[in-house]
Amino acid sequence: MDESYRNLTDFIRRTSVSETFVDILLCAVPIWLAVMIGLLIGWSWRPRWTGLVYLGFRSKLRFLWTAPPGFGARRVWIAFTALSAFSVCRTLWSRLGSSAKKSIGEDPPSEAVSRGSDENREKEKDVVTEKDLEHLLHLLEAGNADMEWQSMMDKSTPNMSYQAWRHEPQTGPVVYRSRTVFEDATPDIVRDFFWDDEFRPKWDPMLAYFKTLEEDPQTGTTIVHWIKKFPFFCSDREYIIGRRIWEAGKKYYAVTKGVPYPTLPKRDKPRRVELYFSSWIIKAVESRKGDGQMSACEVSLVHYEDMGIPKDVAKLGVRHGMWGAVKKLNSGLRAYQSARKPGVALSRSAQMAGITTKLNMDLVETSRVEEEEERGQAMEKARRQKEQFNVDWKWIAVGGVALACGLHSSAIGKALMVGAGQRLARR
């Protein structure tokens, strides 16, 4: 009993549980506040005839409120509340039991931390690897056709065009994909613009804090610490991001993802986002002016993250804030182009963006070949299953005609009688 009570208190004291309840409460308060304001305004401006309707229904409402036991509105409300509370308590108790079972087989905290720090020292140089690049190529190029993408937006301005799609997997966060074409922009400028944390607060109002934690001058890999401001009904979010750029000609493959960083432990606030992947491919394309010049820059982006917000609420926020964020992005790029005059010193982040890794084109071709082979095997398997369960309607038609003719001429009945007589004769 003491152990169960201790586990229960530890579970309640967890910051994730309290933050979840606070986020739900803060998300619900503005909605109910808007509903109450609407009711007050509507009631104050109500027509006079609504008072007569209210007097007519008041007796019926009073009857419902004072109905016999088992049928009163208060009793129904209490019953539903009790069922909801029982469901919530059962879920919390099951999670508590699973966490207690999990803690039995875990190592002591000191040993786990020491072993984790040793592993992180070994992996400091391989924060973002070619496996992450393969994942980017799979989402944007090889596996793009195999995923179901829902169109979200297709808009343009005089110097920019934007298209966006989303994919909703059965498990995990929603995956967003976009294609942006900036007129009169080079891939180098766009690459430095996305990497420049010192300039980012001038166009991204959500970035409240940034700091470079580590950097590798050989590969250009950096680990940065971000804190983003969220709306008032949600707490701020913290990101530990590892990023790296590969180059093939004038085509850049930029990969950013959430990485562990034991030397910077989690805090109560802001809430850390661990599952984060935001990567893009930058290349020069022909301008839509029709002059045949490669003076435009295309950015193909794929992004997903688990912010700890309900999926429907996150989709609603992304859908309503997407175009405004894209316009701020375009304005920020134009301001960055103006600021990048000859002779102006580059920021440290922009300097690190210029340190890229030469991309092994065999990796790209191998990824494409593997995806094509997997796609071919899947198509062959589907074809075999279709042939296995396929019905040859030609023979069914021939059999149906023969059966109809036999029934019409009584040939089938005679054949059955002859067969039965032969069996009796053998006996």
TrEMBL record:
Record field: transmembrane: 21-45
Molecular function (Gene Ontology), one example: lipid binding
Composition bias type Basic and acidic residues, residue spans: 116-129
Domain START intervals: 149-338
Region Disordered, residue ranges: 100-129
Keyword Membrane among record annotations: yes
SUPFAM superfamilies the UniProt entry points to: Bet v1-like
Cellular component, GO annotation: cytoplasm
Keywords: Membrane, Transmembrane, Transmembrane helix
Domain of life: Eukaryota
InterPro entries in UniProt: START-like_dom_sf, START_lipid-bd_dom, START_lipid_transfer
Name of the featured protein: START domain-containing protein
Organism of derivation: Brassica carinata
